[in-house]
Each structure stands twice: as structure tokens, then as C-alpha cells.
Amino acid sequence: MTGSSRLVPGLLILIGLAVVAGVLLGETGMAAGQIAQAFQDPGSGPGEVLWAVRAPRVATALTVGAALGLAGAVMQGLLRNPLADPGVLGVSAVAALGAALAIVLGLAAIPGAVEVAALVGAALAGGLLILFSMRVRSPEALILFGVALSSFAGSLTALIFNLSPSPIATAEVMSWLLGSVQNRSWIDVAWVLPATLIAGGLAAAAAPGLRMLSLGEETARTSGLPMARLRLLALLTAALATGAAVAVAGVIGFVGLAAPHLVRAAVRGDPGRILLPSALTGGLMLVAADLLARLTPTDQELKLGVFTALVGAPLFALIAWRAAREWRL
């Protein structure tokens, strides 16, 4: 069995272990007797902690991480840029803008309002990117447009902070933008899971095109590859997956950027075969990061987006250093 064929089963085993640890471990420890009671009587106090608090939190982290990892792999394949991630094209920023606006307008009290606002923002960003890509074929131009879109959305979000009529609303927006899966329920899982599965189907349809695109756009075009359809599928994948992740967990960086890099060597850089491993790696990263954030001894629990940046930036620097050494060789 080759390293590539062992990758997905290995990731599934690691995810299983991380999920078990995430459900059984937490800030408040539970004795073996309490854990046994939780399995025997899910309605008991320990059962409520495991199945109504920790389990949906772990499931949310797993699904959000998978969505971000998938979006990052698709973006890196489409743009042929190893630094591309779900945020580079502005989808995350516009989704965050929609959610922030909903919170400031007092819509957070309505169930699902913030999630819908974030999804609408992601859809708007995706639509603008699709329209732009229909007129301009250059991936560099698409990146620049995405950076401009992200900058503009970030400026509007800052304006919301500046003009917010309530310090409480401002604090809520700030807390949400830092990213977290704390206090998430099975309803939140139901929000993000279908969108992630649909995005996975779109990504699978785009996989052959992404593989051909790695040979160069001219080669891909002469092979008869429908470039417009490829861009549409890839951008829809990124917008849907990122929008769903941001809608449920807020803005969580680094996962979409790093997950494809962690498995790229195992699939020999194949943009089509990297999609599923990237999604699994993203889910594993976020479950592990959330568990570590919970177990870190602090007076106030670390926000997940902050924790992934603190831990992830040095890790990505190590990946970049190793890649630079290989390039010199």
C-alpha cells in the first residue's frame, strides 16, 4: 500500500481519535463512572454534557474545518497559487460583513438570522467573483479582485464597529469575528453539514479540470476543457463551503491555507486527489485546535480563530522553510 492510499484511512483514524478525545475531555473533568452514566442514560447530567454540549461542538468543528480545508484546496488548484485560501478572494470577509451587519441591527435574537446573513454575504461575493471571472481569465487578476473585495468588506466591517450604537452589539460582533464553536448545537451542525456535502460534490465535479489546469491554462484550453465551467464550479465550491463555515463559526483563518500543504506531498501535488485529504485534514486540525483551546489553562477560553493563528502561523512557517530547502535542492 502506497503512502497516498494510506493517507485517507490514516486521517480517518486520527479524526476518530480526536473526536473521542473531544467528547470525553473538557475544561471540567469527568470520572469514569460519570462517563459510563452518560452512555447508559443520555438524559442524565453527564449525558447532557457529553451529547448536548461537547458532541455537537466537536461535530461543528469537524465540519467547519472540513469546509475550510476543501475550499482552500480548490482555491489553490484554481489559482495555481499555494498561498490561496478561502479568505484570499474576499468570500470570508463579505460573509463576515453580512453577519456583523445582522448582529448590529439586532437580528441575532431571531434564530438563523446571522447564519442567513453570512450565507447571503458569501453568495454575493461568489456572484461578483463569477461575473469577474467571466470577463477576465487571468488568475492573477482574479486574485487582485478578491483582495480588493476583501479589503472593501473589511473596511465596511470596521465602519460598523465605528458606527455601532451599542457597545454590547460591538462586543458581540468582535466575539463572533474571532471565531468559535463554543455553545454550538446540533442545529448548527445541520446548518453547515449539507452545505459542505454539496460543496464536496461540486469540488469532485471540478477535480478533473483542476488536474488538467495544473499543466497550464493554455494546455488545459487546448485539451477542450471548459474553463468557464471549471471556474464556476470552483468558485461555487469555495463560496458555499466558506460561507457555511463563517455562518456557523465566525472567521477562522489559517486552516484553509495550511490543510492542503500538509497533505500535498502524499498526493504528489495532484490538485484533484488533494481535495478529500485536505477536507479531512482541515476537520482534524480544527477538532484538535478546539480541544487544545478548551484545555489551555486560562481565565477565559481562547477563541478558536485566535488559537489557530497562534499555533498555525509557526507551523506554516516551518512548512514554508522546508519547501524553500527543497526548491534550493
What is the topology?
Blueprint: H1 3-24, H2 32-40, H3 45-79, H4 91-104, H5 113-135, H6 139-163, H7 167-177, H8 186-213, H9 217-222, H10 227-249, H11 255-264, H12 275-295, H13 304-328
Helix pairs in contact: 1-3, 1-12, 2-3, 3-8, 3-10, 3-11, 3-12, 4-5, 4-6, 4-7, 4-10, 5-6, 5-10, 8-10, 11-12, 11-13, 12-13
Descriptors:
329 residues, ABC transporter involved in vitamin B12 uptake, BtuC, 77% helix
Shape: globular
Number of helices: 13
Number of strands: 0
Name the CATH superfamily assignment: ABC transporter involved in vitamin B12 uptake, BtuC
Largest sheet: none
CATH architecture: Orthogonal Bundle
Mean pLDDT: 85
Distance between the termini: 28 Å
CATH fold category name: ABC transporter involved in vitamin B12 uptake, BtuC
Q: Report the structural category.
A: mainly alpha
Radius of gyration (Å): 20 Å
**What share of the residues lie within helices?**
over 70%
The parts where pLDDT drops under 50 for at least 5 residues are none
Order of helices and strands: HHHHHHHHHHHHH
Strand content: under 5%
Domain count: the total is 1
CATH class: Mainly Alpha
